[in-house]
Inverse folding.
């Protein structure tokens, strides 16, 4: 595993668009516009994450990426995070109206996270693997990196996911379902999961 560097942000934004294809269909219904905007949105969030998260990649070939952060880091205001992460240019390119919808989505799931995990924890933000490299164990290797960290710090970990396949994978690593919820004004139904650190699992 390698730590992500700024030079990886642009190519990773394209990989994320492949891994999360049509993730923003509720915001950009037109397929052509969505194809253009998705890498911009991914780059916007990667820049935000870079300033206050731990980000690891599988290798310079960027087969996969994992992003997590300490829950304390999320207390900084979004405006300050945008200014300090150099993501203002991407925000402008995305457009004010779509960005408001994206950030409203982010605020909602952030509120659910604070409700379901009102204690210090690690937050697993994203764990995508490039579709052409899925099924090769890259996701497990990335998740092992996070589990090592949470057990070392003796902190629980919280994640939202979708689909029974992903739920089964996380359960294999010791996560349990704590809630299911729909995100307003979208078609998304998310499953919230939590894993306690190794010492507390005994």
């Amino acid at each position: 595993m390698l730590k992500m560097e700024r030079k990886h942000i642009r190519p990773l934004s394209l990989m994320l668009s492949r891994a999360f294809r049509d993730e923003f269909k509720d915001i950009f219904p037109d397929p052509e516009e969505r194809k253009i905007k998705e890498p911009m949105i991914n780059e916007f969030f990667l820049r935000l994450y870079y300033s206050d998260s731990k980000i690891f990649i599988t290798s310079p070939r960027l087969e996969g990426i994992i992003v997590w952060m300490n829950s304390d880091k999320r207390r900084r205001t979004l405006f300050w995070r945008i200014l300090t992460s150099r993501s203002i240019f991407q925000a402008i390119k995305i457009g004010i109206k779509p960005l408001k919808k994206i950030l409203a989505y982010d605020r909602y799931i952030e509120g659910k996270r604070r409700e379901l995990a009102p204690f210090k924890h690690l937050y697993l933000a994203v764990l995508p693997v490039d579709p052409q490299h899925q099924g090769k164990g890259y996701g497990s290797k990335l998740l092992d990196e996070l589990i090592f960290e949470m057990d070392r710090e003796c902190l629980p970990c919280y994640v939202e996911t979708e689909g029974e396949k992903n739920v089964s994978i996380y359960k294999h690593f010791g996560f349990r379902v704590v809630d299911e919820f729909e995100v307003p004004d979208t078609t998304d139904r998310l499953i919230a999961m939590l894993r306690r650190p190794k010492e507390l699992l005994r």
